[in-house]
Amino acid sequence: MNEIITSAISESTMDKLHILADSAKYDVACTSSGVDRKGQEGMLGNAKGCGICHSFGADGRCISLLKILMTNHCEYDCKYCINRKSNDIPRATFEPDELCQLVVEFYKRNYIEGLFLSSGVLKSPTYTMERMCEVLLMLRTKYRFNGYIHVKTIPGAGDDLLAVAGYLADRMSVNMELPTVESLKKLAPNKSFETILNPMSKIQSTISEHRLAIGKSSRMERAKGNRLLENSIFNQSRLEKKPDYYAGEEGLFIESNSIGEGIKLPTVSPRLILPGKEAVLSKADKLNRAFAPAGQSTQMIIGASDENDFNLIQTTQQLYQTYDLKRVFYSAYIPINEDSGLPSLDTPLPLLREHRLYQADFLMRYYGFRANELLSEEMPNFHTEIDPKCEWAIRHLEQFPVEVEKASYEILLRIPGIGPKSAMRIVNSRRYGHLSFESLKKMGVVLKRAHFFITCGGKQMYKTPIEQKYIFKQITSFEYKDNWKISHSNENYRQMNLFDDFGLSV
Amino acid sequence: MTVFSCADDFSAMMTCIYEAWSSRLGHDNVKLVREPIHQLELFTDYVHVEADSEKTESVVRSINQKISKGAYMWTFYASLSHEEDALDTIYRFLVLGFRYGACICQMLQNPVVMRMMELRRNVGNEAHLFVEFSRFTSINNGIYVSHIEPKNNCLISVANHFADRMISEYWIIMDDNRNLAAVHLPNEEFYIRNLTEDEATQLKMTEQFRDGFVAMWEEYFNTIAIKQRVNPVCQRNHFPEWMRKHAVEFLQSK
User: Fold this and answer.
1) Which H or E run includes A32?
2) Cis link prior to A125 (omega < 30° from 0)?
3) Which of A120, A203, A194 is nearest to A156 (CA)?
4) Which ipTM value was assigned to this complex?
5) Could you tell me if A21 lies within 8 Å of chain B, comparing CB atoms?
6) Domain B134-209 coded CATH 3.30.1300
7) What is the least distance, in Å, from the CA of A311 to any CA of chain B?
8) What gap in Å lies between CA B152 and CA B119, rounded to an integer?
């Protein structure tokens, strides 16, 4: 394999890497999960369903993929974005060979699990997407790379190119960025809801067609526990009864009939779409890859526009149900640009809000909660002092205390302090003998939260009243410190110094 | 009390279990430990057991047939643990396993089973962390060498992952604490080798190699963090400091 590759790495590669990584860092998703693929002789790499993080940056975010832009030249002028046309920043573009070699060499050293390729809009969406597909194709054929690839689609690129990208990548994503039509118009004037939801829906129907063709179910796999949850947002029988079940959930943002549902991407051969690359592309037809086997994801910016949490989690739930997304990511808005439509530069990052939204997202994907159970029109935002699950439990004290030796998996999951793993352990082990608080603790139940809500063998751990005010006060008293840490985690304190801070000299 | 002791490898441990069982002293009157034994106890007999392949096989067969494949996986993983009570826990676990059968792996309210689960989980988790955090150095443009210093003996698990991931490459993963190396040739099965002192010192020198890609990785690593979100506590939670010894991106500041 070595003879065909001459080094494309030059002195300028380092600078390009710096510029293009710097521009890519605000993208959130960096996961390598969702697809299991064995290694093949003569190829490099495999993929693990659980995903593998390779490092953690100074901000504590995982580094799993080489998250990079192909170019940070951009025709668009989205107000919140660092790469917008009107910003004066250094710009660069990778050569396809250069980028491929970086990926392969990083991969062999176990620095990364694959490539996360995004890009600014160079010339036109179609031209940009063509260049991106070229990189992916080269990586899969010339460099025989079998690892994980996540590709961000450029809104407005042609369907043919979307299809090519899907055949070459594992996961695709289209960024929602903003959850409502109004805020999108205001902050991203060149994008529209159609250009975002249209590809999303096409990708979804193509994925499900491919899944059916190889004998899987049409919808993506979800956490196993969901099968036991009657109320889960992924519950098949409830999804099918769409009309009456949607009727109960008002105020949805995406009107699903406005977008062409069920339209599939064309079946294409990469060779026809990217002309002039025959030498490289002749192998491409033999690739025989599944279409985006790890599904698609999206991300939304939190705090740049004035949506409330209820809007956000409702949109999220609908994205999971209608478009069968694998993940929805949230990103706390970081003020980098100055603009009248944006929050001012000294706005604190809404880190705790982002944290609460992720908590809610997990409650929906793993715990069988629905958006309208967690929040409502009357109570549109999450509590700052207490997490969404505890809050739900305190509002529904009539269902507690729960006897852990008898309660169903579904009920156990609703107890604060018990998660999918510990609930499953409880369900499995109690068939063979009694449980005690000691063993519950060892099984991973967080008793400091759970003990208010459970009995074990008919007894509470301590004699505590099942009373809203009391439990709220108890829980917030020890959660206070953690919450403070999350919302202030990015601040560094140091002791004031007379000499540095007040300019004294000896 | 009789203490059965053996070397720290799987076969010896299985033989030790076989001997302790067939001694018919009663389960409460035996204790199993791995060597070296640091402190001898009074009023205790010590029996040293050597590895025996036939007895190992018979123990493994019994576990698979009379308990379950899952229980065998637990036993194997727990045997890689660095905890002192690992071997004795395995013995107690098997005693229960032969009584209750396949359901033993779910009886977590039993302290022995719970301890066994913790041992197995600890080994599995550590192996996964080293799959994530081991770094390879490229020597002579084509041989990749990695050094790890795990607490548990999880080299096999880690190497197994890379045997699939880099199936057509030459690579070596060395466990610096135990002087073991997993060696892999393109398109072949890897093997584990006990290194001599000389080989070990020579292999350790590979870490001084640096090429352009190391510098580029450091650059990438430093660039990708968002300054406004810096959070060292979160970073330490995910990537503990003791695991950073061989991760190139953390060595630059020293």
Assistant:
1) none
2) no
3) A194
4) 0.94
5) yes
6) yes
7) 25
8) 10
Question: Would you state the structure tokens that stand for residue B23, as one six-digit string?
Answer: 């001694």
Please identify which residue in the block is written with the tokens 């899952």: B70
Query: How many CB atoms within 10 Å of residue A185?
Result: 13
Phi-psi label, residue A64: left if phi above 0, alpha if psi -120 to 50, beta otherwise: alpha
pLDDT string in tens for chain A (506-residue length): 444 456 778 888 999 999 999 999 988 888 899 999 999 999 999 999 999 999 999 999 999 999 999 999 999 888 888 899 999 999 999 999 999 999 999 999 999 999 999 999 999 999 999 999 999 999 998 899 999 999 999 988 888 888 889 989 999 999 888 887 888 888 888 888 888 888 898 899 899 988 988 888 888 888 888 888 888 888 876 665 554 334 334 344 444 444 445 566 766 655 555 555 544 444 445 567 888 999 999 999 998 888 899 989 998 998 999 889 999 999 999 888 888 888 888 888 899 999 999 999 999 999 999 999 999 999 999 998 899 999 999 999 999 999 999 999 999 999 999 999 999 999 999 999 999 999 999 999 999 999 999 999 999 999 999 999 999 999 988 888 788 777 777 666 666 777 777 777 76
User: Among candidates A52, A58, A45, which has minimal Cα distance to B133?
Assistant: A52
Strand A55-56 and strand A62-63: pairing? antiparallel
Stretch(es) of chain B classified as CATH 3.30.1300 = 134-209
SS3 content of chain B, % helix, strand, coil (to 5): 55, 15, 30
CA proximity to A314, closest of A259, A374, A261: A374
Domains of chain A as residue ranges with CATH: 2-339 (3.20.20), 383-487 (no CATH)
Q: Which chain A residues are closer than 8 Å to B100 by Cβ?
A: 432
Interface test mutation site (partner B, options A6, A20, A59, max chain B beta carbons within 10 A): A59
**Coil, strand or helix at B68:** coil
Which stretch of DSSP H or E encloses residue A241? none
Hey, how many other C-beta atoms are within 10 angstroms of the C-beta on A357? 23
Q: Please name the member of A43, A110, A490 whose beta carbon is closest to the beta carbon of B229.
A: A490
